[in-house]
Amino acid sequence: MISTGDEPLQLDSSRGRWVLTVTILGSVIALLEATVVNVSLPAIGRHLDADLGDLQWVITGYLITLASLILLGGSLGDRLGRRRIFEVGVIWFTVASLACAVAPTIELLIVARVVQGIGGALLTPGSLAIIEASFRREDRARAIGTWSALGGIAAAVGPLLGGWLVDAVSWRAIFLLNLPIGVLIVWASRRYVPESRDPDEAGRLDVWGSVLVTAGLAGGTFALIQAPERGGTSPLVLASAVVAISSLVGFVVLERRMAHPMLPLELFRSRQFTGANLVTFVVYAALSGVFFLLAVFLQISLGYSAIESGAASLPVTVLMLALSSRMGALAQRIGPRLPLTIGPVLIAGGTLLMRGIDIGDSYWTSVLPAVVVFGLGLSLVVAPVTATVLAAADDRHAGIASGVNNAVARTAGLLAVAALPLVAGLASSDYEDPELLAEAFDTAMLVMAALAAAGGVLAFATIRRALLEETGGDEPTTPPHHCAVAGTPLHARSRQAAGRAAQVAATSQGGEPVSWEDPGAGPR
User: Fold this and answer.
1) Residue 267: which pLDDT band, with cuts at 50, 70 and 90?
2) Same domain (yes/no): 322, 434
3) Do 218 and 198 share a structural domain?
4) Phi, psi (degrees; rounded to nearest 5) at 171
5) What pLDDT is attached to residue 329?
6) What are residue 163's phi and psi, to 5 degrees?
7) By C-alpha distance, which of 74, 69, 75 is closest to 407?
8) Which of 163, 320, 380, 503 could pair covalently with 306 via S-S, beta carbons 3.0-4.6 A apart?
9) Cα Rg of the chain, angstroms
10) Contact partners, residue 514, CB within 8 Å, separation at least 6
């Protein structure tokens, strides 16, 4: 992590505060887009005459490019300059946000969201990387803690802010909000942020790997979304499925042969690494499916306003704020196996309670208990699963391991949103019918509960209790800091890096700020 000719910054200096502000705002605009759009889906559907399949594409179009290109975005920053790629990403993201805001049709909105995801993949790796490269060593922990907390607050207020904007102004305002923030970020970045790059980054960029994984995710998403309307035997659906399978197989073959692959397959030789990523996949699929359909269900079937829908899941955020750091510390003391077994089971329990929400029910007696149990389970999972992934990889692969775990979480969310109406039996034209949507919601929550429970079973079967304590020596492992959205390799230089990396990752994956503990402070 080399700065090009600049001395490391002090956090308390004027320039240091500006650098931190730039990185926080960069992560905030990406986090807001991940939290406010779900709340606006019913309004988008009404104003643009969109069916459920169209609304799925509003979410999945963004996730396809974000999930498939984030590793490439991080690599570009390491080679060409992190500030440069960060600024390109912010400009790209901001212009795409304007295109989203003014889109006259649902088709153009979907295209703009796909383009917006490319910008997100370019800007998010640079946010945390710039902090690590710019600040002196003794200030990095405090800078990352501030970045983590304020980013989590943005994620927490996102649904409320989005709901208020939809009710008071328009769904278009949630995209217009990015414009002044983007302009401020670019101005401040050019003026205050030092450039940095990794002089050791070598080898050819894995561009074809990015192309293949993007084609695979796009083809699979198209097949899943179109299958309910066209039928599983439709030539177009079948062709999309073939493209998806062949592209993903081609991606694996390519990665095996490349000297510098985007995804080193040797990582998956570790049973712990594979197991932790399988847990991530099923749990985050359940998480994404629940939040995608819950916001729509509350507004259409229960008659909530957009802001009421956004506020309904606020207890999840409160629980994450209160408990995530404690759960990370607990996993350091007792190992991750128990939290990662119990947490998904609690998520499944909360999801099953959501099946009991009926039209006309009170929030306090039906919705609140479900989201509280759900939030308790999520608090047990987020930090321990990230720490497990990092601990299961050797030091030289820790950065890419964190990026892989993030990509797994994003891909799980993408496929869950794409497949949920299909598995729930909800046709695109039926989502505006409160009764039909309620029936489909009941089925969908049963499937999501089964997925979450499967995560607990997988954790029990594959995660060793003492994994986080097995560091191979007298010192704990020090995987790099990373942001789960970005997956950027950031070289760790302190004893506290492992715990800090896991907690920072929890912020991005779960959208909640958490503090970090020294992993060497507990029993060894």
Assistant:
1) confident
2) yes
3) no
4) -65, -25
5) 77
6) -65, -40
7) 69
8) 163
9) 21
10) 148, 152, 320, 321, 324, 325, 328, 382, 383, 503, 506, 507
Report the distance separating Cα 85 and Cα 73, nearest Å.
Answer: 8
Number of domains in the chain: 2
Question: Running DSSP on this structure, what letter comes out for residue 494?
Answer: S
Average pLDDT (313-340) is 83
Segments in 106-170 forming alpha helices (H): 106-134, 137-168
327-345 pLDDT per residue, tens: 877 877 888 899 999 999 9
Cβ-proximal residues to 212 (8 Å cutoff; 6+ apart), any chain: 247, 248, 250, 251, 254
- Same domain as 380, residue 288: yes
- Which residue in 244, 224, 266 sits closest to 404, CA to CA? 266
Range of the domain at 197: 2-202+273-510
Q: How many Cβ atoms are within 10 Å of 274's Cβ, its own excluded? A: 15
Q: Cα separations (Å) of 428 from 41, 227, 372, 418? A: 13, 11, 30, 12
Q: What is the percent of the chain where pLDDT is above 70?
A: 83
Sign of CA pseudo-dihedral 382, 387, 388, 394? positive
Tokens at residue 422, please?
A: 């299909």
Q: Looking at the domain assignment, is residue 266 inside a domain?
A: no
- Does residue 290 surpass a pLDDT of 70? yes
Under the banding of pLDDT at 50, 70 and 90, the label for residue 441 is: very high
Question: Looking at the structure, do residues 377 and 401 belong to the same domain, yes or no?
Answer: yes
**Virtual torsion, Cα 81, 85, 91, 95, nearest 10 deg:** 160
Burial 474-505 (b: 16+ CB within 10 A, else e): eebbbbbbbbbbbbbbbbbeeebbbbbbbbbb
**Residue 519 domain flag:** no
Are 58 and 122 within 8 A, CB to CB?
Answer: no
Q: Is residue 267 part of a domain?
A: no
With respect to residue 521, please indicate whether it lies within any of the assigned structural domains.
Answer: no
Examine the domain organization and report whether 375 and 291 are in the same domain. yes
> Does pLDDT of 104 surpass 50?
yes
CATH label of the domain that carries residue 26 = 1.20.1250.20
The conformation of residue 495, written as its DSSP 8-state character, comes to T
Residues 121 and 243 in one domain: no
Residue 388: which of 477, 315, 321 has the closest Cα? 477
Say yes or no: 287 and 225 in one domain.
no
Instruction: Quick: pLDDT tens for 388-415.
Output: 887 787 756 656 776 788 788 888 989 9
- Answer positive or negative: Cα dihedral of 151, 153, 154, 155: positive
Mean pLDDT of the chain: 82
In a shared domain, residues 244 and 288: no
Please give the Cα distance from 258 to 125 (Å, whole number): 23
> Dihedrals φ, ψ of 112, to 5°?
-65, -35
Structure tokens at 80: 């060409």
- State the residue for tokens 């997956």: 487
- Among residues 119, 17, 18, 12, which one has the least CA distance to residue 73? 119
Could you tell me the pTM of the whole model? 0.80
